[in-house]
């Protein structure tokens, strides 16, 4: 009986490879049921996100090859090609990996909380597909419990560890509430998209997006409920903005001191927060000389991010210790099931062996044979019957020189 974790993630495979092995939501139920029909796979859960695709299986046998072959065949890939990107963990290693994933310790951004919800959703989908049994029910509930403990009792998910998130955190510290803040994003690239999504999660009242390519700006605005504009509208947009976050790929600054000076006058000197995430700069350095203007650059934020990453790493070590203890506890419970099954079979076998001598003794009593003779004879028969297999096993171990088996039998005799 083996617990298996097998998959690819952002560490082992490129986006192109991860796209090839991702499971679409509409095919997940069929995939789970197909995987469990392999024969020696009794339970399965598939976690498929943009950064990872992982199969969690409860195997009746230790052979992993059929699972790898199934994974490759499902996505119409050669097994040899897929294998070079795969990692695999078994038993306590697999348990530890699952708990680390759910706790955000294996994520692209250390400590990110979204993965726990994704693992919970994957587990629920497997439940609905009928591929979760007693073992995985307990395994995943233990996983969710330790992930919650990690989130509650460590700071592994605290503090910004991306420049985009740090920018929004900075704005939140300066403006106690962002719900009434008016934000202007200059640029609509990857960084701007991350900033926009973080702002949207904070409930920002108004997000305006100015971009050189109007269609790109409109797509981002639609995604976050904002308004799209052209860069040529900056002179009109800046006076309306409490917060300006710029991240274009322009080789020269696009927001100069004069433009901000004019905006401040139109705002009647209401303070403005400007965050320049671009390299090279989008905002002229001289802008910081103006009153009522607070300018931060990517370097300012990067130092905050580096410090926060170090703090998260320290907390991650604490979280890993918590996970290790929980994984060991679950593995001990899992191993105990083997002894439970063995004891059940041993008891059942002995009950069957005792039935014939017992029937013979009852018949002898019914025929009038003295009770003391019947009891003595029954005791002798039961002793011989119950001792037969252990005696033969000890003798066989002695002939083979199997000291390990003999030591185990010695413990049983004590």
TrEMBL record:
InterPro entries: 4pyrrol_synth_GluRdtase (IPR000343), 4pyrrol_synth_GluRdtase_dimer (IPR015896), 4pyrrol_synth_GluRdtase_N (IPR015895), GluRdtase_CS (IPR018214), GluRdtase_dimer_dom_sf (IPR036453), GluRdtase_N_sf (IPR036343), NAD(P)-bd_dom_sf (IPR036291), Shikm_DH/Glu-tRNA_Rdtase (IPR006151)
Domain Quinate/shikimate 5-dehydrogenase/glutamyl-tRNA reductase: 170-304
Biological process according to GO: protoporphyrinogen IX biosynthetic process from glutamate
Residue span(s) of domain Glutamyl-tRNA reductase N-terminal: 6-154
Transmembrane segments: none
Reactions listed under catalytic activity: (S)-4-amino-5-oxopentanoate + tRNA(Glu) + NADP(+) = L-glutamyl-tRNA(Glu) + NADPH + H(+)
Positions annotated to bind NADP(+): 187-192
Gene Ontology MF term list: glutamyl-tRNA reductase activity; NADP binding
Assembly: Homodimer.
Domain remark from Swiss-Prot or TrEMBL: Possesses an unusual extended V-shaped dimeric structure with each monomer consisting of three distinct domains arranged along a curved 'spinal' alpha-helix. The N-terminal catalytic domain specifically recognizes the glutamate moiety of the substrate. The second domain is the NADPH-binding domain, and the third C-terminal domain is responsible for dimerization.
PANTHER family: GLUTAMYL-TRNA REDUCTASE
Family per similarity comment: Belongs to the glutamyl-tRNA reductase family.
Other observations noted: During catalysis, the active site Cys acts as a nucleophile attacking the alpha-carbonyl group of tRNA-bound glutamate with the formation of a thioester intermediate between enzyme and glutamate, and the concomitant release of tRNA(Glu). The thioester intermediate is finally reduced by direct hydride transfer from NADPH, to form the product GSA.
Name under which the protein is recorded: Glutamyl-tRNA reductase
Originating species: Aliidiomarina minuta
Lineage: Bacteria, Pseudomonadati, Pseudomonadota, Gammaproteobacteria, Alteromonadales
């Amino acid at each position: 009986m083996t617990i298996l974790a097998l998959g690819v993630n952002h560490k082992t495979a490129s986006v192109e490879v991860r796209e090839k092995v991702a499971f679409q939501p509409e095919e997940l139920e069929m995939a789970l049921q197909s995987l469990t029909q392999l024969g020696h796979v009794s339970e399965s859960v598939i976690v498929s996100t943009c950064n990872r695709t992982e199969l969690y299986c409860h195997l009746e046998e230790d052979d992993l090859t059929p699972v790898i072959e199934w994974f490759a065949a499902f996505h119409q890939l050669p097994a040899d090609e897929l294998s070079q990107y795969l990692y695999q963990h078994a038993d306590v290693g697999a348990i530890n990996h699952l708990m680390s994933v759910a706790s955000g310790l294996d994520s692209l951004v250390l400590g990110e909380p979204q993965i726990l919800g994704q693992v919970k959703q994957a587990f629920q989908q497997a439940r609905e597909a009928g591929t979760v049994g007693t073992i995985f029910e307990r395994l995943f509930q233990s996983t969710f419990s330790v992930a919650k403990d990690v989130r509650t009792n460590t700071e592994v998910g605290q503090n910004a560890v991306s420049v985009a998130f740090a920018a929004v955190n900075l704005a939140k510290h300066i403006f106690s509430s962002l719900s009434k803040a008016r934000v202007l994003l200059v640029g609509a690239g990857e960084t701007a998209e991350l900033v926009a999504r973080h702002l949207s999660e904070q409930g920002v009242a108004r997000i305006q997006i100015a971009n050189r390519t109007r269609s790109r700006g409109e797509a981002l605005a639609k995604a976050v409920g904002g308004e799209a504009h052209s860069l040529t509208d900056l002179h009109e947009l800046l006076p309306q903005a409490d917060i300006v976050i710029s991240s274009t790929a322009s080789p020269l600054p696009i927001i100069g001191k004069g433009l901000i000076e004019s905006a401040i006058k139109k705002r009647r000197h209401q303070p403005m927060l400007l965050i320049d995430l671009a390299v090279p700069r989008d905002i002229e350095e001289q802008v910081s000389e103006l009153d009522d203007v607070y300018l931060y650059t990517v370097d300012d934020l990067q130092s905050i991010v580096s410090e926060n990453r170090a703090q998260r790493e320290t907390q991650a070590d604490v979280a890993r210790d918590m996970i290790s203890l929980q994984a060991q506890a679950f593995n001990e419970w899992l191993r105990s099931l083997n002894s439970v099954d063995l004891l059940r079979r041993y008891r059942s076998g002995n009950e069957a062996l005792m039935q014939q001598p017992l029937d013979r003794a009852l018949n002898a009593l019914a025929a009038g044979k003295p009770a003391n003779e019947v009891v003595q004879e029954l005791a002798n028969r039961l002793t011989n019957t119950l001792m037969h297999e252990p005696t033969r096993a000890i003798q066989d171990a002695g002939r083979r020189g199997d000291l390990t088996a003999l030591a185990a039998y010695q413990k049983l005799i004590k």
